[in-house]
Every structure is written in C-alpha cells, then in structure tokens.
Amino acid sequence: MIPRAEWLAAAQSLPVGGKRRIKHGFEATAAMDVWNNDDRWSCYCHRCHEGGVVYKEHQRVRRAVVEPDRVSPVPAACFRLAEASAFEQQQIWSLLCRKGCPPGVIPEETIWYDRTVRRILLRDEDVCLGRAIDPNRLPKWLPYGNWHGKPMIWATRTGAVGTQAADSAESGLLILTEDALSAYKVAKSIDTYAPGSSASVVATLGTTITDRFLPYCLGRSAVLCMYDGDPAGLRGYRAMRQRLAVWQQPVVDMRPEHGDPKNNDLAVIAERLEKWL
Ligand SMILES: [Zn+2]
After folding, report:
1. How far is the CA of 26 from the centre of ligand 1 (A)?
2. What CATH number should be reported for the domain whose range is 154-276?
3. Long-range own/partner contacts, residues 79-82 (CB < 8 A, 24 or more apart)
4. What is the pLDDT of residues 176-210, one digit of tens each?
5. How remote is the CA of residue 61 from the centroid of ligand 1, in Å?
C-alpha cells in the first residue's frame, strides 16, 4: 500500500471522474495513475506495482488548497547515524560505499536514519531526501519535509550566497549533477583539491531543470553538466543546453564517459574540473 502522502493530494486535485498519470517520488517517468472516483480516491504505480485507496465515506471532505509539491513530513522517529545500531550503521555504510560515498564524503551530521521506513535520510534543516536501504524498494529516493516555495534540488556546496534567496546574485561556476550522492562526491573533491574555489554544486534530483530552479542557473560564468554517463544523462544535458541557450547561458558537458560522477575517485573528478576551479 502506497502511503497517502505520496498520492492522495494529487487524486483529490482531480475533478470527480478524473484520472491523471503523475510521477511517484523521484521516479524518472510519470508511472503512477491517480483517480478521483465517486466513492473513492485511488492510485496505482506501474513501477512499484503497488496502489492505494481511500474511501470517501470515511473522509471528511475538505476543500483544502492542494500544494503541488506536497510531500510527507520528515519522519518523526528519525535519528542521527551515530544513534543507529551497529547493524544499521553497517547497512548504511555498506550502501553508501557501494554508491561511491565512503565515510568522509558526506558530512556526517547530514546522515540520519529512519527505522520505520528503512531509509537513509540526507537531512538539511526541515527537508530531507530518503534513500531506501532495500535495493528492490521503489522509489529509491523520496523527498520529505517542507519544500514549499523551494526548488526541489539538493545543494552540497554553495559558492557565496545560499540558493534559497530569491534575489541571490550568484554569478560563479555552477556544477549540476543528477543525484545527491554525486553532488556530495563532487563537492568533496573540490573541497579537497581546490578548497578556495567558489564553485557551487547542486543536484537537480533527476535530469530536468525546473522553472523554480531556472533563475539560479542564469548569469553564471559557466554551468557544468555532470549528469551520468548514460543515455538519460545525455538527453538531460541536451535539454539543459537547449533550455539555457534561450537565456544565453552557456553549458559545458562534463559527464563521465561511463557511470555516474560518484563512481569516480575524488582525484579523477578534480582533474576533470581542474581548468574550471
Ligand atoms: Zn512508484
């Protein structure tokens, strides 16, 4: 059963009798159908092969304003990595190491864990990203917390001003990755080999630059695309180049030949970025 917070608001935003295909969490494509029928709201995700249903007779129907980016709150029972059991810590590190992020790459205060949802939580104040421990669990990543009004991105290194400020006058180098772990790896590489650099590193959590994030990508000395070295990464790079070209914002393809940036050693990443830092 898919938790209500992941689909109910979308179903409720439909007219009665309506159906829509939406994205579930950070899944790459819209694979979840949501329905608003006479007597029930329901969903079915064709990737997760799971669904959910809420019968209207048990619901007090309220005309609440539906936030398009509504997500579950940060799990109340989550705790810091250091408070996890030895077994849990071993599971967490084993996953992060397999994904190219051994201890030292991600700041440890960022890493939390939630036992009930069995997800590693990368936490930044009131928002977090949850990565399933179980390799077969979909979606692999889920956002949590208060994203209202914020672009759905994950910044791991900020050059000068935070990416939240609407009137941010950032003009330095911006490096974009697909996923948060790659963004931590690239940030660590810069902090290690070029600590004085003002480069910002941000994961776009997928291969799309959203309207809300677009302003932060403009007026940069350069935008370096470090999406994954696969067909989806290439399509993402081309779409980014085309989108930003409208605003005369140059984009440079810095994708690895194979695999994700996080699969590369810190030194290899730094060498690739050398002339930009
Ligand atoms: Zn799904």
Report:
1. 9
2. 3.40.1360.10
3. 79/112, 79/113, 79/114, 80/109, 80/111, 80/112, 80/113, 81/108, 81/111, 81/112, 81/113, 82/108
4. 999 999 999 999 999 999 999 999 999 999 998 98
5. 26
* Residue 112 CB neighbour total at 10 angstroms: 22
Domain boundaries, the chain: 4-55, 65-145, 154-276
* CA distance between the termini of the chain: 47
pLDDT at 165 > cutoff 70:
no
Compute, in angstroms, the gap from residue 11 CA to the centroid of ligand 1: 15
238 alpha carbon to ligand 1 midpoint, in Å? 26
pLDDT tens digit sequence for 39-66 = 789 999 999 999 999 887 654 444 333 3
pTM: 0.75
